[in-house]
Amino acid sequence: MRLRRPSIAETVVAAACGLWVGLFLVPTTAWAIPTAAAAAASTLLLPQRPLTAGAGLAALQWALAFTHVTDDNPAFLAPVLIAVYALGRHAPLWPGVAVALAIPLSSIVESPPPSATLVFALLLTASVFAYGLIVQRRARTAEHSRATATRLQSTDAASVAASIVADERARLGGQALALLRDAVEGMRSDAASAKRDLDIDLIESIAARGRQAVTELRWLLGLLRAAPAPTPATAPRRRTRWVVDIGVAAVLLALCVVEVGTSEVARSSPLAWTVAVGLPVCTLGRNRLTAPALGGAAVVVGFAAIGWLPFIATALLCIVLLAWSAGVAGRPIHWACLSLLAAATIAWVAVDDPQNVPITVALIALPAFAGHEWSAHDRSDRAARARADELRANLDARIDDARREERLRIARDLHDVASHAVGVMVLQASAVRALRDGDPAAARQALSTIDTTAEQALTELAMMFDLLDSGAIGSPGLAGAARDPLPAMVDRLRSTGLQIVLEAGSIPSGLEDTVYRIVQESLTNVVRHSDAMHVRISVEVEEGVLSVRVVDDGHAIDRPVATDGIGGGFGLAGMAERVHELGGAFRAGREARGFAVEATMPVEPMVRS
User: Fold this and answer.
1) Based on the structure, what is the number of domains in the chain?
2) Backbone angles phi, psi at 499, to 5 degrees
3) Which among 133, 154, 175 is the end of a domain?
4) CA 534 to CA 59: how far, in whole Å?
5) How many C-beta atoms surround the C-beta of residue 394 within 10 A?
6) Which of 154, 186, 213 is the last residue of a domain?
7) What order do you get walking across the sheet with 545-552 strand by strand?
8) What is the pLDDT of residues 21-33, one digit of tens each?
């Protein structure tokens, strides 16, 4: 992979490292300028080739250690700390650990083990590497969140919804169609067998199969039409950060108190106890009151420097933690407060041990830089997550709407077939039972009507199964199944004894199915729920509007819905939904005498977005 052009920030950091190395090495070796240039070049390469650049800096560190150029010289402090951070930030974990460990081990040349210098170098290296590793993990999380948001942004919601709806149709529709088909086939078979001797058991079986199918379909249609359960609100996450802050402050307080208490010089000084207690207390507000916490710590450390208090090493842990929080907050006020704290800390260290000023600067600067970089990735991650959540919610809403609409479509079509076919077959079976003794010929004619109705229903069911298998989605319901013309369906209902007058002209092709279903459901309701003897059906087209009106002359009668048909308003609701989808109006209700169903629809249906 080709190297990219370094950023301005990377160039500035590399130049600063080269200048640092040069300033500290010029008084001690003639190789200061080449070494500074090599250190700057390696530092510039760290973000893109962390292992190669880190190994190069480690080699320079070892070479200078063997020549004893860097004995008690912080010349390579800045580049090696940046290298260790870059290894944790950019390199794979275990190769990065291996290269990072090579840097502090160079202290063996200066102080043979075991030595406090080596232990300190290892601890410092582990801490800086951990900074880089934490930022790397947050960067990867942010990248994953951005990729998720991008993927959701490019997702075709219509395609996803169509795929899920296809599964919904196959699962629910297939189950219902199979149930209905088995019932109709069984009723047709029993009707054919009963024609020979009008066996009462077979006649009862027809009615029993129909009632069982109706009961099961009512349950399924209820599920299909049920509104989706509301999504429970997500319980707000309990905030536990304050518990962590108190725990960290307590640990820091204990460490400071132990150090002051075990120091003969410090334990007799009220100022030392003030610092030991004050700095841990300041860390309590580092997340919510960052600027006051930094300002308070700067005041405490400033008094320690003015009072010539011996440096308390564990207090530096509090300062490092505050530096991280300042970098995370990242506002100008926080950087200004951190600058005051850093100046006070450097002054305190310079008063007690000037040789440790460079390492103190590094220990304050690195966590501030790492915290700032972590915060940038954290903000990016939260923004990407919020965007992904919004896109996912919109996609889920679209899928839910599509699933709900498809369930209603399946419910309407199943109701149309089941209510007409099964309901009529059950009524004809009742007629056979009543006529078998007095008028066997009429009873056999009723059985023939059952056979014809079953054949038509099975044809429609077969077409519905074909649509399920093909995954056809997007048309208004499962319409398109082969069916008899409207006059043939009306003639079949006349066999129940109804006197039906049909006045229908040419029906626009796009509205044929809707008109058929409205008339079919209206006539079925008359047969099952009314004592009407006369029905008038009119279908007219005038001035671009199609009108359907079905009026009977009966009164409502009470029948147990669970045994006689699929009621409960499913049929009327389905008709209304069909009409409204086409931009029309629907009305059903009692009149002075009888019951009327009326629907008006534009000949050119409205396109719904």
Assistant:
1) 3
2) -100, 110
3) 154
4) 104
5) 12
6) 154
7) 499-504, 534-542, 545-552, 595-602, 585-590
8) 998 888 888 888 9
